[in-house]
Each structure stands twice: as structure tokens, then as C-alpha cells.
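Data card: per-record layout.
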Amino acid sequence: MRIEHLYYFVTVAEKGSIAAAAAELGRNRSTLSMAISALEDELGCPLFQRRGNSLQLSATGELILDDCNRLLALQEKIAYRCANPPGEEVCELCIGRDDVLTESFWRRVITRIRTTLPGVSLSMRFAGSDELPELVRQGQLDIAYAMAFNPVYSGDSLCQRILTKTRMQLMAARHHRLARLGYLNDSDLSGSTQITYLDSDQQERFRLNNIGADTLALSSYELIRDAIQDGLGWGYVPEPLLIMEEEDSSELNLLNHGLNTAWYPYLVYSREPMNPERRSTPLQQVHHIIIDEMDQAGIL
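The structure for this 300-residue chain is written out next.
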């Protein structure tokens, strides 16, 4: 009996459907469906009954649910004790990140790190994209993930590696007058507020110069997306926020302007080279988990 199958079973029972559980865990629905079927075959009885698009626990499923939760708790306890023998120091890691990737993405990362690396004492810090490299260089962070505005030069105390490129897209709310135009020129844009990203030096990033003076500068990409969706203006939104949270971005339209797309590198910063193939240290293992989650989210 695989612990992973029990974990999937408990999550499906809590969420009431394969689709909802897959979204919560960041896994494919087929993966969860096959795991549940394999567990039912092994136990020799059905664990769920279908009710339209939802699943309800069978009588046997109700009977074993608490026991499965106890087994999962015991597995976590065993893993923690093995990872933290008496007298050994706990590994402490501090991760930095901007908000190009969604809160739900980092929630999955934290859960997976705590599940697979219980011996790691973890902290996570949100900061501006431009601040994170220096925080790593100073030793305040062990590793950081961020989009880069300008090249940052590596040195003896900072390593960097491009993981992917992030597409910034020029968006407006569907009900905004700009979204109704077939093609936009600079004059069309100048009549509305541009929403920009405010960095730690109080500089406005992703601002189209010479196109109006009215701007709304915000220090979070998610705030920018939400302000655009609220009809307060137009601006650039990182594509991961659009594809990873489709429901929150459903009322946004890509503007048909010659500068509606720009690409920026998304990097990892550390004080030692990071290679996803190397997993000999806790930091490298954490990096591998984050890369794997990015891959599953379709970001890489």
C-alpha cells in the first residue's frame, strides 16, 4: 500500500472530486484517478460512489478515512524523526521570491518541501524582483527566484542562472474602452491610466515612455493584474499570473498594440551554483522541487 495513494484518497475525500483534488495538489487528474483505482483494487472494494460530477465516500471509504489520516500522520512523524536524529542540527533555509509566480504555486512548493524534507527548517520571504539578488549576496537569503529587469553580474558571492523567460503581456479589462478597439496606437493608450510596477528604488518599471503622464504605480504584480481587471487602467501582466490563475484573470484582454509583448528572464540566485541534476545538499533538493513544480505548472 503506497502512502502517496492514501494521500490522494484523503484529498479526494476532502475535496469531493478528482478535479478539485488535482487542482489542490497540482497534479494531473489521470494521476489521481489511477491512484484511487489502484488503491481500490488492492483493498478489494470501492472507496467512492459517483454522484453526477462529484464523488461521495462509500461506506467502506467512510470507515477507513480516519485510519488513513492516522497513517499519514504517523508516516510524517517517522520521516521527521529519521531526518532529525537526537543531537543533530536542523538545516535552516531561507527562500526569497517575487510574485511573478502565484501564491498557490508557492503554497504547493512549501507543502512539498515540508512533506519530503521534514528535517529542513524553512522560511520564505517575499521581496521586490530588484531586491532579491542583493539579499542573497548579503546572506539574508540562501536562494531566491525572481524576474530580472536588468542583467545582474555574478561574482564570488552571487551565482545566477536563467530558468526560463517570462512573457509580459499588455492587458486591459474586457469592459475597458481600449479592449473594444481592433488596433491601438500610442494616442489611444495616452488617454487612459497606465499601471506600472514600482520597484524598491521607487522607479516605475514596464512603463511606456512618452505615452501620457497618468500612471498608477504598484509594488506587486498581482495588485497590477487586479487593478487592471478592476478597470483602473492598462499595463503589463506576467503570463504565469494569467495561466496559473485563469479564473482571476478571465476578465482581461490582450491589447492589440505593437508593444503588447515583452520577454524578461526569470532567474534563480544563490551563493553556490544551482543545477537541478545535483541533489546532494538540502538546498539543491529544495531547488529540484521548485524546478519540478515549475515544470508541472507549464512554466518551463
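Known properties of this structure: Residues 77 and 280 are 23 Å apart (CA to CA). Residues 3-83 form a domain with the Arc Repressor Mutant, subunit A fold (CATH 1.10.10.10).

See the next section for split statistics.
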